[in-house]
Amino acid sequence: MKRELGFYMGLAHRVSGLALFLYLFMHIVALRGLFDPPGFEKEMKFLDNLFGLLIEWGLGAAIFYHAFNGVRLIAIELFGQEGRQKKLFWGVLAAMVAALALMGIFMATAKDSYEAQRARFGIFWVGLALLSATPAYLAVEMIRQKMLGRHTVWKIQRLTGLILVTLVVGHYVFMHLTFNTGHDYKTILERMSSPLVRALDFVLLVVAYGHGTYGVVTILKDYLKPSLARKAIEAAVYLSVVVFTLLGASLLWSLPYSAN
Ligand code: HEM
What we know:
The protein is mostly helical. The protein is 82% helix and 0% strand. It contains ten helices and no strands.
């Protein structure tokens, strides 16, 4: 039973990781629409209905599961809690359901303006600070336990995962605090008028692609025998990541600092 549960949790971790990796490409394509404001508004209108809401909410399931289960895996490695697999599973599931329920409420009751929902931003910053305490503690513990040993790259995969908890969960929740934060051209550019926000978005882009690429290449190695075909797929993954990192970065440095 223990083994079965671990297997399904691992499989769900893979599927959610792959889904997030693929989503990143679509996200960059969609955001390139910001270069053409009327086109972007049309794109966003497509999501302005129940179907769009459900897709965006469903993305949260992949994010929350992968993030919380990733934290569980890292904690197990650091403190050895395999015997509590079942309890930890319910912990991950409960945290995911709670986060999704909260997002559902935020999304279903979202108003357009920042002023109308000032309190949400207060809750957001306090919640993000609390959420970040666990990965920050685990990252310090990893360094304290001399993480840079034989499996350096794999350990860096864990460290980037911990950084992504704050960056990815924070980004996703922030973008859904009001309807406009993630959909309105002017509001998006207002957020990006700060060079610090652009720098953080850049870190998110690079760390997420770095972490995701290593994860995908590991999956390929697990399922495909060494062959020319696997080498070709790996090369295609690396090439697409480089191209899309550059496309994302060019967006960050060339979008105007104001919508006017
Ligand atoms: C949000 C915070 C995140 C955390 C805490 C996290 C954590 C982890 C951990 C610990 C692993 C290794 C799993 C193992 O040992 O089997 C992993 C694998 C992986 N991650 Fe993440 N990750 C996060 C975000 C992301 C993002 C944004 C992406 C996509 C861009 C991603 C894609 C992947 C992939 C594809 C794998 C390989 C899956 C596997 O082999 O099981 N992760 N993640």
